[in-house]
Amino acid sequence: MGKIWMPGGGGGADLDVVTAGAGDVLAGKVSVDKEGNPLPGTMPNRGTGYHGVGSGLNTQGLYYYIGPGYYYENPTNNPWVYMTRGEVAATLGIESWKMRGDVNVCGVQGGIPMQNPDVSGTDRVRATNMSNWAGTINLGVRNGHYLNGVSWVQQDIPNYQPWNIKQGVNIGGIVGTFPDYSYLANGQTSF
Q: Where are the alpha helices (DSSP H) in the chain?
């Protein structure tokens, strides 16, 4: 058992109770070991505002791994650690193809293009193409776009007019007004 002589103190200290090792003492500070020998500290002093060594996501939320060491607080700051915005984005799975183009989260700019109305003064967008079969009209929209403020897809069909549809026939809400002249095909000249 080692003893430390303390002048004016009237005795020594029992070093058998020393349990601190070099990693328990701040770097730059010196303690003693159980034999009374100087023991330089190796514990890093992280201070405050330290960059974390990793992060993850679990059912409780986002967490950070912090390096071993001492994190002090002072009268104006509590100790804190951080991850960069890019590291947080990667941990959370934030990717540009998952977000609208007008959104930026953790420095990741959204990559889904915005499609605003393009028919002047309306909430409509022009169809990219059109097809029809079996009584349906199918209008194409811009694939991979977010329709922003768009309520309708418009396809211009100049000949889709009541005067071009047989009188009394309803096609998609347009009732025809074109007179039926089919009797002329049978040689009849009037009713």
A: 85-92
Residue 31 token pair: 């303690």
- Measure Cα distances from 11 to 6, 16, 17, 39 in Å: 6, 15, 16, 22
- Binned at pLDDT 50, 70 and 90, residue 62 comes out as confident
**Integer CA distances (angstroms), 127 to 7, 143, 159, 172, in order:** 95, 11, 17, 17
Q: How does DSSP assign 60-116, residue by residue?
A: TEEEEE--SSB----SS----EE--HHHHHHHHT--GGGSBTT-EETTEEP-BPEE-
| Res. 52: pLDDT tops 90 | no
Residues in the chain, total: 191
Contact 92, 62 (CB under 8 A): yes
Per-residue pLDDT tens digits for 117-164: 998 889 999 999 999 887 788 889 888 899 999 999 998 888 989 999
CB 142 within 8 A of CB 128: yes
Burial pattern 60-93, b for ≥16 Cβ within 10 A else e, equals eeeebebeebebeeeeeeeeebebeeebbbebee
Report in angstroms the alpha-carbon separations of 55 from 45, 52, 72, 91: 21, 8, 21, 7
What are the tokens at 20? 């601190």
* pTM of the predicted model over 0.90: no
